[in-house]
Fold:
Amino acid sequence: MVKRNPHFAGLSEGYLFPEIARRRRALLEKNPDAKIISLGIGNTTEPLTPAVAQALELAARELGTADGYSGYADDSAGLSALREQIAAVLYKGRITPREITISDGAKCDIGRLQILFGGRATVCIQDPAYPVYVDGSLIAGAGGGLQYMPCRPENDFFPDLGGLKRADLIYFCSPNNPTGAAATKTQLAELVAFARQNKSIIIFDAAYSEFIVEQNLPRSIYEIPGADEVAVEVNSFSKSIGFTGVRLGWCVVPQKLKFEDGRPALPDWLRIINTLFNGASNIAQRGGLAALTPAGRRETQNLVAYYQDNAKLILEGLRQTGIQAYGGVNSPYIWAHFPGQKSWDVFEKILNEAYVVTTPGAGFGPAGESFIRFSAFGRHGDIDAAAQRLKRLKF
Amino acid sequence: MVKRNPHFAGLSEGYLFPEIARRRRALLEKNPDAKIISLGIGNTTEPLTPAVAQALELAARELGTADGYSGYADDSAGLSALREQIAAVLYKGRITPREITISDGAKCDIGRLQILFGGRATVCIQDPAYPVYVDGSLIAGAGGGLQYMPCRPENDFFPDLGGLKRADLIYFCSPNNPTGAAATKTQLAELVAFARQNKSIIIFDAAYSEFIVEQNLPRSIYEIPGADEVAVEVNSFSKSIGFTGVRLGWCVVPQKLKFEDGRPALPDWLRIINTLFNGASNIAQRGGLAALTPAGRRETQNLVAYYQDNAKLILEGLRQTGIQAYGGVNSPYIWAHFPGQKSWDVFEKILNEAYVVTTPGAGFGPAGESFIRFSAFGRHGDIDAAAQRLKRLKF
Structure:
């Protein structure tokens, strides 16, 4: 008979968000009238902006016409115009269009990067972290060489690189999910120098880059000189323009990034894109293109500002209870500390006493224990109500 | 430094379709006025049908409204309504909605199935075959245990199962890409019996099932009793409703399908869907739902009939040159035999003398040598013109 893939045995039971959904349902079964507000999963709630929605609608309509129909793109790596606009508008020319591949989202690209590097690669992962880095690495078979890099208030949520063994891959997310910490240029320069010295490759997740408001914080790893020799970058339209359901992201694999044998990584990456992926939806790509016009960019800024206002409300609510909270400024996530308490216990308390769904920090890794992640994605009214309920809790 | 993933070294140079695109560009550089007609890649050309296009347009419009907006779905496995309709309309209740996961296309699902089974699985693959089975298996690391199952006119394009060593996975595509052969119930029953006896798992690719016109030919492996214990099935909206660019497909992993240790495969599959995929575009899913209404089904039949008429034109054109051609009845592909000739040579001859792009059979595997695949996806006028040009060729 066919053996179960042994890599699955190493996964912890239940992916984090389905488990949260299960507990939410359990509350509703017990108390069907509970008016639950979700600050859990980072799911956008606001309508698409006019420029983007109209572009999607037009793209859909054109597909119903003989002149406007399109099937497979000429290139699975994505529409040339979109790759050019991402290079020009978001990377200001630091990256060329041919180094950019368009995808159905950052999570999917991370999975494909794990295929690119394979199960023999050793990996370092921030702790806490987006679960896909660890679970995806385990599924790929990289479990043997997995190191955590603890990120806590004591180290300003930036890992102590000096204490690490060399690894092939370093996952790094900034602005960070879940801690909300946005790395400074000095910190990222230290990370790049460390990768160059160790001949490691950084997988830089910049999915929240549009939430950066403070001046001088880098929005891309490629703002650090030399990063294009040691880093790939994934990013997404999900959180910035509300495409969590529409599905659109991109990945940068610079031409200067090379393997030990001197071969560039980009051709192998394009081989994966051609072989195991067939391009992002042509409708979604038209929406992405609209979002990168000057009008689209202004709308994106307003949309992001809406969620940033939410983050302020949550931060204020938490601070009135005396809880120390981090993040929420250059990030849609607030990372609240409950010293001495288990985060699943705090999750249950907040769920059952305030009817607010959060995400227990322990779900993001060992160093997330005693923390709770609050997501600022939601309607103002809901967020305001949740903040009021939080203020009344005694921890 | 980071080592190149050794699995990539086993891949042949250049994925088939990019190589064809390169040769097409080379002709245009030499002869910019050449009016090239493509019967190469299986890319749909006809506009989406009204029911589907209107559903996509409405879905896009609603995303721009507060009430109609949606982000991440509750379940990465797809809209409940779509899974229910696929189970009811296309599987007539043989498969339950929870055994169905919605995806961005069959190619992507095949890649994820290769992650599910891992690189230790031994595999049997029809020869010729859609390149993704071989290339994806090699990338996953399954190169060591790869067996070809030759499918030729002599065996009615159905493999001689008796001569095979046992393998974990058997890739089988019907109606077949590229040979155009649609397996009979008797043949599929033999395949299922073989898999049950050997305790193998069939990966059944039914992406062209809507092209079946002849009575009594199975459209799903699950029409064979007992198949739900030994087969997963992938399928797609790409070719049936013209979603090659919109991206929508599905996969069936039956609850009865188990690994050696008695564990069902479905939870591991759902883990992959949750961990490395975030659901198909919510716009595309609404289009799929519209295609499964009675009106949508009628439109699909008309759309498929359009391409089937094209296939007849190509078959007639080829037969007038005395070329033996297969397929093209229950499939959009015609598989033409040029005994004693190399298929890349025939490809070049047809490209340079008739300005018609085809696909050389050798690109689909060793047994594809001396064959050419003609795709029936195209506008009637173009297909007719291509058929006229083909008639004038001397082979």
Observations:
- Chain A touches chain B through 93 residues (CB under 8 Å).
